[in-house]
Amino acid sequence: MPSDLEEPMPDVSAALPALARLREDLRQAESAVAGMLDSWHRVQGASIPGLVEFVEGREAQGRRLTELEYGARVSILVCQSGANRVAPVPSTFTTPVPDAAEPAEDPRGTLAGVDYRVLVDRDFLSEPTAVRALDERLAEGHRVRVMDHPLTKLVVADGELAMVQISPEQSMVLRPPLVTLVCELFEAHWRRSRPYLREEGDLAPNDRRILQLMLSGLTDSATANQLGTSPRTVQRRVRALMDAAAVTSRVQLGWYAIRNNWV
Question: Residue ranges per domain, the chain?
């Protein structure tokens, strides 16, 4: 709870230009990588032996995605956005291989010790059961963070292979040294993202989820759908959090939540 001596909330408008510059820097970096990959595809029209492999069709993408995860030994980096047709929520990277003769083995059992870092955006958080999917990842020890602008869907296995989705029907698999570009893009996003949920503190887990979804721009109705409750309940909890933070607007609540490690 805030004390009477707590410093006043900062002027939100003063930080907006800096935040806008950070967003633009990341957008330009991501656009440059996507443009480079698209140019290669248009010029080459086929895979580049040893460097780039083009994967066509959703089924083929799903199979290649599963292969990358099964083959990981040390780490997996993920940027995930909404509208996941290749690997639907909540089985983002554990969807069984389509039309496989035998049911796919659960990759989690074969990936003990593999470090997962997962970045999601607000479009992902709007997907059905996204909150449940992320809670499952946290329970498995994955590190999950959130970006407030759309992400390009990608996965990097062991820093050696990167799969980047160009469209719902097409992806590219990159090998060294090109995979380094994707790793650097992921790290730039990671540094500027925020944790999905924090464990420390005395804030209830559902209140943390409400704050995270609010900060990501979801409406009260969308938040209620994710949490299996009603918009009125969400509004009551937001009001209670505003009272606890001694603020008068949701914008101020967001700033307070970030500064005090509520999210």
Answer: 19-195, 198-259
